[in-house]
Amino acid sequence: MTYAQMSAEERKAEYARLQKEFDDLKAKGLNLNMARGKPGKAQLDLVSDIFSLMQDPKDYVSDGIDVRNYGEMSGLPAAKRLFAEILGCKPERVLVGGNASLQLMYDTISKAYTHGLLRSERPWCREEKVKWLCPAPGYDRHFKITESFGFELITIPMTDYGPDMDAVEEAVKDPAVKGIWCVPKYSNPDGIIYSDETIRRMAALKPAAPDFIIMWDNAYCIHEFEGDYVEFPDILALCEEAGNADMVFEFASTSKVTLPGAGISCFACSEANMAYMEKLLTIQTISFDKVNQQRHVLYLKDKAHTLELMKKHAAIMGPKFRAVVDALDKEIAPLDIASWSRPKGGYFVSLNAMPGTAKRTLALCKEAGVTMTGAGATFPYGKDPQDSNIRIAPSLPPVEELEQAIAILCVCLKLSALEKLGI
Ligand code: PLP
User: Fold this and answer.
1) Among residues 91, 90, 92, 86, which one has the least CA distance to residue 275?
2) Of the four, 34, 123, 246, 391, which is 20 to 30 A from 93 by CA?
3) Is 265 in the pocket of ligand 1 (CB under 6 A)?
């Protein structure tokens, strides 16, 4: 029987039973975390043999370049080839940067703001208003970047196929709209893979702003934890075919392949954009960390070898995601108080609780010792108009802890739904 079908008396009894269960869980004094998409310790252990590399002096040289010295600002050619093969684009369209793609994303927006992009009429700081499209639910750190530059964030609804392209096509008619955030494969948090149709329409956009950019954050491009690797189109080639070669910057990193915060990152863009960005970046740095780039080239070798490693990550991640979805299927599905995604890759499960209950659910979780991503975080300005979306990040805790955490989340979802329905 669903909660809505229960009589007031039945709901009252259920609430009293759950409150007792909640108090017992609270008394355990747990400290569990499902807040951020961090790899678990087993995943870090899996890749820590990377530290044993580069013991032989011949490993300091890549394509005749001494990786220990200044130079090669746009990255080692071998590192460009590695990312290009993974992303399916040309190596000359890749710049390999430092330890995090988020930094490259921030820097791209920052350069647009201070200097303008290749096709800008003026730096964005001189625009009266800059508006930015945010498919939501989405990645909180994306939204924060554009918010921090004072852009007006416009929410674009997510569909099962990616951002609502009717809404995007309509929004880009406004010349103040300068860009959009996209996580095209295993989107954060929904785990959606954009459909071919969505990608085609995205590449073919005809925005009023000449310097409109798609920030194509392919953070989870090889991050399947269930099933085989899913091929994905090259957005750079599609934009070029549509006459929009300069409209996209693609980003990726090895944060969830090797070590988050100690991996390597890249962006990929048209040759014209690359020449423009290199001119600006050359002032900023003489070179990124090529030693780490070389370490990654030696460790990951090529796409096929990297995909083998991702299978090992999948063997650790898969059971964690199954534990979450199984618990929700068993405990919550019969009550009809929430729905959730069933991703096959990425780092999150996106749960939509009964509208008006996400904040309360997460406050109860906190009380019982479970830290989750804050309610609203997946929406621009941290405000979920429905107070419904909850992002579950199952990767960090070991399975036993995760099972405890998800059991607590289920109790909290039930309590807050009963409160909403009236007890
Ligand atoms: N992009 C997305 C969509 C993410 O979910 C994350 C981390 O959770 C990042 C980027 C961070 O990547 P990096 O460590 O390369 O900055």
Assistant:
1) 92
2) 123
3) yes
Check pocket membership of 183 for ligand 1, CB cut-off 6 A: yes
- Output the CA 142–ligand 1 centroid distance in Å: 9
**Which of 99, 141, 144, 296 should be mutated for ligand 1, with most atoms under 8 A from CB?**
141
If you take atom 2 of ligand 1, which residue's CA is the nearest one?
219
What's the pLDDT tens digit per position in 360-408?
999 999 999 999 999 999 999 999 999 999 999 999 999 999 999 999 9
How far, in Å, from the CA of 144 to the mean position of ligand 1? Answer: 13
**Chain centroid to CA 206:** 26
Q: How far is the CA of 101 from the centre of ligand 1 (A)?
A: 7
The pair of structure tokens assigned to 302 is 């090529």
All domains in the chain, ordered by first residue: 3-44+307-421 (3.90.1150.10), 53-303 (3.40.640.10)
Q: What is the 3-state secondary structure (H, E, C) of the chain?
A: CCCCCCCHHHHHHHHHHHHHHHHHHHHCCCCEEECCCCCCHHHHHHHHHHHHCCCCHHHHEECCEECCCCCCCCCCHHHHHHHHHHHCCCHHHEEECCCCHHHHHHHHHHHHHHCCCCCCCCCHHHCCCCEEEEEECCCHHHHHHHHHCCCEEEEEEEECCEECHHHHHHHCCCCCEEEEEECCCCCCCCCCCCCHHHHHHHHCCCCCCCCCEEEEECCCCCCECCCCCCCCCCHHHHHHHCCCHHHEEEEEECCCCCCCCCCCEEEECCHHHHHHHHHHHHHHCCCCCHHHHHHHHHHHCCHHHHHHHHHHHHHHHHHHHHHHHHHHHHHCHHHCCEEECCCCECCCEEEEECCCCHHHHHHHHHHCCEEECCCCCCCHHHCCCCCCEEEECCCCCCHHHHHHHHHHHHHHHHHHHHHHHCC
Which of 217, 264, 317 to probe ligand 1 with, by most ligand atoms within 8 A of CB? 217
pTM here? 0.97
Kindly state if the Cβ of 255 falls inside 6 Å of ligand 1. Answer: yes
Distance 395 CA to ligand 1 centre (A): 14
